[in-house]
Amino acid sequence: MRRRVGTSLYAGLLFTVLGAVAWASGQPFVFPSLGPSAYILAFDRRGERTHAYRVVGSHVIGAVAGLGAYWLRGPGVTLTALPPALSADGLRLAASGVVSIVATSWAMIATDTNHAPACAT
Asked: How many helices (H) and strands (E) does the chain have?
């Protein structure tokens, strides 16, 4: 019971910091991949998976791979509106997602920064 409460509160604290930064800056610092990262950091505070180089490095890799894949496969396609079904723009976005996951996975393994939530970055 104590670990559940501690883990929950610590994960909440980590997200409170990000929420405060997002609120103060007006920028979207809270995004989906950080929720699982906060949980892993809170649940396994001293484990191999929580080393800063793994968590930060993997998210940097995920961001660079995602932006690179979008730049290569989906430039000009907006992410604020869904493209029509079976459209070329939709295919380009889907392809950029696939390229991003492949590149992120490869780079995390190559650099020993394995942190699964970064694939959602």
From this structure: 4, 0
pLDDT at 69: 94
Q: Where are the domains of the chain?
A: 51-120
Return d(Cα 97, Cα 69) in angstroms, integer.
7
Burial, 3: exposed, middle or buried (Cβ in 10 Å; 0-12, 13-18, 19+)? exposed
Q: pLDDT tens across 70-87, in order?
A: 999 878 887 788 888 999
pTM of the model: 0.80
CA atoms of 55 and 37, how far apart (whole Å): 8
